[in-house]
């Protein structure tokens, strides 16, 4: 990522002195809302603003009194890991009336509040925008009624609104993910994984209903993540005769020795006549046509509950800070905006543009223009797929996706066991559609993976490529996979067998691959770290003051320690990329000592395993124990390989599925382009690529061009986007530090999605 130029702005230049910010949650609750509230409060206080809670949403704003309370730093402690919203949420009929909004305006003016951060769905945000548009008129009425002084009109002339979307349905246009969606997927996948074991035991069919009255995101992504047999969503009603096709599919899977069937239905699923498709209808259909033992499970509000995932905590924290930035920079002419996520980047979009597009989607569906609603939201070649490097949760989902997309596009797919070590030994076999059934939810690498690089065995690998007539390679792995493609690219000069399209998909818990902001497996590792830190902190509940020193994996890459620290609410995170010395350690101990003298009872410090040769985990533990004597005691934990194991998170299942499918579509395109005179011959730089997430999009990048961006000694990229999040972690832990806002979101217009040839839907 390019470094900001001389126009770099630091947060000290943006002052909140004299400003009052209020935060409320409205509509349905969603996991992660508390993380957003916490970020708004602490960032607001950090810049010198007064921050208020509005309890019970708009109802609390209308009622006033104790429902609007000033927030302190300590009032948002220990809420990061709590689901729901601790400040309450309620639907308010009175706020929909002019009289209700007049009361709300009076309550805000009494406290000098002219900046509102609203966390909710499209209805809540629409109400906030109407309130803003009426603001000056409401103040005039309050003056006429003698409720406020006339100079208040000038003093509080404009109401500034910034929204964050909290909705588990992910049904808001303009953002890739809403707060709460990832956590809801966690709940769904936990249930599906549990159901699959009992279904397999009894050879049952399970029909699961998930939330999504008007949006099928949860149903579709959970179906991809668990490898469901059939999915029904409101945006894509099935064609007439779907019942027979579904039964044929279920019957074929059973004939293929599959002992269970999973059907996932969004609660708003409909047919082409807008007639609801219910779980009972599907159950009766399967029993009548196939005679399968069929059960129905309706997940209901289980999806809203529980602890927020690491993704939602990080997303909500980033969005909360961005919301405060937006409020500080707004003027009387700035339209109300919503803070959104586009790829891996925060953006600000006009609130009403997003709301109007969201409403257009529903209107298109009501009018049976289903294809429009979705838009608003070859030859036979041999392709080999292999895993290289350490195992990462989500690798199997990526392999499954590659195999099935490849077969759908007419290729013959080959699986290579044990990476390049197995390749040179001839451990290669054809892999078919049914062979990857049930792979999505399994951790590790079912193909087997090794760190062996190809250079030492390049002649034997070339021989195997020739024997099996391999026309393209898909390599799924971490830094070793990146090195492997560089070695194979060099080997093209000697062996024509490597003059084929080659693409790498990043998969490593360390997230240290150049050319990609994210890697398959990193989200699962972050969730493991976050969950463990939550439990460790809880273990000190009710005891004396205690600080925990936690060691994370990552090699020389501090991603897990830094982003895990942000998700878990850490006080410090020591990493290789930010050198530190004994003075820094001493300052951290003193900072924690001061915090412990207030109401803070627990401290959390993360250390990347290779951050420093001398300041080891034991050294830091002993230092904190000695220097904190009499104020707090210390404990240490080394998380180890638990970060690498376990079932993949919904994000990693979904990310692995999508990125691998895109890689296969690229391979198909390159094979077509390079097939000449009966053979494939690809020897250009752009035929050997890494597919990575760069800010907003998935991008194919020639690996040779990434060499200049790589620190090969320490196996990390020279520039890493997440380093800009570290000041955020420090600010939320009450440190005074600089915060670079040059990369913060800028207000831009909503862009309608247009279908691309490469985005053609594929039956998974």
Automatic annotation (TrEMBL):
<feature type="region of interest" description="C-terminal regulatory PFK domain 2">
    <location>
        <begin position="382"/>
        <end position="764"/>
    </location>
</feature>
<feature type="binding site" description="in other chain">
    <location>
        <begin position="167"/>
        <end position="169"/>
    </location>
    <ligand>
        <name>substrate</name>
    </ligand>
</feature>
<keyword id="KW-0067">ATP-binding</keyword>
<feature type="region of interest" description="N-terminal catalytic PFK domain 1">
    <location>
        <begin position="1"/>
        <end position="381"/>
    </location>
</feature>
<feature type="binding site">
    <location>
        <position position="295"/>
    </location>
    <ligand>
        <name>substrate</name>
    </ligand>
</feature>
<feature type="binding site">
    <location>
        <position position="635"/>
    </location>
    <ligand>
        <name>beta-D-fructose 2,6-bisphosphate</name>
    </ligand>
</feature>
<dbReference type="GO" id="GO:0016208">
    <property type="term" value="F:AMP binding"/>
</dbReference>
<dbReference type="GO" id="GO:0070095">
    <property type="term" value="F:fructose-6-phosphate binding"/>
</dbReference>
<comment type="pathway">
    <text>Carbohydrate degradation; glycolysis; D-glyceraldehyde 3-phosphate and glycerone phosphate from D-glucose: step 3/4.</text>
</comment>
<feature type="binding site" description="in other chain">
    <location>
        <begin position="211"/>
        <end position="213"/>
    </location>
    <ligand>
        <name>substrate</name>
    </ligand>
</feature>
<comment type="similarity">
    <text>Belongs to the phosphofructokinase type A (PFKA) family. ATP-dependent PFK group I subfamily. Eukaryotic two domain clade 'E' sub-subfamily.</text>
</comment>
<feature type="domain" description="Phosphofructokinase">
    <location>
        <begin position="21"/>
        <end position="326"/>
    </location>
</feature>
<keyword id="KW-0597">Phosphoprotein</keyword>
<feature type="binding site" description="in other chain">
    <location>
        <begin position="553"/>
        <end position="555"/>
    </location>
    <ligand>
        <name>beta-D-fructose 2,6-bisphosphate</name>
    </ligand>
</feature>
<feature type="binding site">
    <location>
        <position position="546"/>
    </location>
    <ligand>
        <name>beta-D-fructose 2,6-bisphosphate</name>
    </ligand>
</feature>
<dbReference type="GO" id="GO:0005945">
    <property type="term" value="C:6-phosphofructokinase complex"/>
</dbReference>
<feature type="binding site" description="in other chain">
    <location>
        <position position="609"/>
    </location>
    <ligand>
        <name>beta-D-fructose 2,6-bisphosphate</name>
    </ligand>
</feature>
<dbReference type="GO" id="GO:0005524">
    <property type="term" value="F:ATP binding"/>
</dbReference>
<feature type="binding site" description="in other chain">
    <location>
        <position position="267"/>
    </location>
    <ligand>
        <name>substrate</name>
    </ligand>
</feature>
<dbReference type="GO" id="GO:0061621">
    <property type="term" value="P:canonical glycolysis"/>
</dbReference>
<feature type="binding site">
    <location>
        <begin position="91"/>
        <end position="92"/>
    </location>
    <ligand>
        <name>ATP</name>
    </ligand>
</feature>
<dbReference type="GO" id="GO:0030388">
    <property type="term" value="P:fructose 1,6-bisphosphate metabolic process"/>
</dbReference>
<dbReference type="GO" id="GO:0042802">
    <property type="term" value="F:identical protein binding"/>
</dbReference>
<feature type="binding site" description="in other chain">
    <location>
        <position position="715"/>
    </location>
    <ligand>
        <name>beta-D-fructose 2,6-bisphosphate</name>
    </ligand>
</feature>
<dbReference type="GO" id="GO:0048029">
    <property type="term" value="F:monosaccharide binding"/>
</dbReference>
<dbReference type="GO" id="GO:0046872">
    <property type="term" value="F:metal ion binding"/>
</dbReference>
<feature type="binding site" description="in other chain">
    <location>
        <begin position="641"/>
        <end position="644"/>
    </location>
    <ligand>
        <name>beta-D-fructose 2,6-bisphosphate</name>
    </ligand>
</feature>
<dbReference type="InterPro" id="IPR035966">
    <property type="entry name" value="PKF_sf"/>
</dbReference>
<feature type="domain" description="Phosphofructokinase">
    <location>
        <begin position="382"/>
        <end position="667"/>
    </location>
</feature>
<dbReference type="InterPro" id="IPR009161">
    <property type="entry name" value="6-Pfructokinase_euk"/>
</dbReference>
<keyword id="KW-0324">Glycolysis</keyword>
<keyword id="KW-0021">Allosteric enzyme</keyword>
<protein>
    <recommendedName>
        <fullName>ATP-dependent 6-phosphofructokinase</fullName>
        <ecNumber>2.7.1.11</ecNumber>
    </recommendedName>
</protein>
<feature type="active site" description="Proton acceptor">
    <location>
        <position position="169"/>
    </location>
</feature>
<keyword id="KW-0007">Acetylation</keyword>
<dbReference type="GO" id="GO:0003872">
    <property type="term" value="F:6-phosphofructokinase activity"/>
</dbReference>
<keyword id="KW-0808">Transferase</keyword>
<dbReference type="InterPro" id="IPR015912">
    <property type="entry name" value="Phosphofructokinase_CS"/>
</dbReference>
<keyword id="KW-0479">Metal-binding</keyword>
<keyword id="KW-0547">Nucleotide-binding</keyword>
<dbReference type="GO" id="GO:0016020">
    <property type="term" value="C:membrane"/>
</dbReference>
<keyword id="KW-0325">Glycoprotein</keyword>
